[in-house]
Design brief:
By secondary structure, the chain is mainly alpha-helical. The chain contains seven helices and no strands. The protein folds into two domains: about 70 residues, no CATH class; about 50 residues, no CATH class. The longest helix has 24 residues.
């Protein structure tokens, strides 16, 4: 159970992580020699899932977090607003997305192209094409403009080829 406002998986005390692992492991069996590897995989996946939960929270995806108490949500949002480490990472990510020509190079934020493709594939209920992924990551959501001159040329090329 999530009952404290931890900003990331590594902040979660070891005894809580261990309890989560043991609760999850009740439904499975494996050779004892594999326990260390399985716990490592569990922690990796748990960290990635926790990161997604924090992204959902920060992005206002509250319908996906119905299980989280309103008090905990508010505590986490307050921590985000006041955590200097988070603010530094946020500023760094913003700078990484900025183009030296003004505007942004990619509109997917810190999400990688494979992550964007996977998300689009789930939402489209079919594999996303290269052209669709390119458009999704190179068109500004604010005004629907293409973010860079080079992206205009590639988009025109893809359109002419039927992509």
């Amino acid at each position: 159970m999530l009952n404290e406002p931890w900003l990331n998986y590594s902040e979660i005390p070891e005894d809580v992580q261990k309890w989560w692992f043991e609760k999850w492991a009740e439904g499975f069996t494996w050779p004892a020699a594999e326990s260390k590897h399985i716990r490592k995989a569990f922690d990796y996946r748990g960290g990635r899932r926790y990161q997604q939960i924090m992204q959902d929270l920060g992005g206002g995806e509250l319908q996906r977090l119905k299980w989280m108490s309103e008090t905990l949500r508010k505590q986490l949002l307050d921590k985000f607003a006041n955590d200097p480490g988070f603010k530094n990472r946020q500023a760094s990510s913003k700078a990484n997305r900025a183009s030296s020509k003004g505007g942004c190079l990619h509109t997917g934020g810190s999400a990688s192209i494979p992550k964007t493709r996977a998300k689009m594939t789930r939402s489209l209920d079919r594999p996303a094409t290269d052209a669709e992924v390119f458009r999704a990551t190179h068109i500004c959501k604010r005004d629907r403009s293409i973010v860079e001159k080079r992206a205009v040329l590639i988009t025109m090329h893809n359109t002419q080829e039927g992509g």
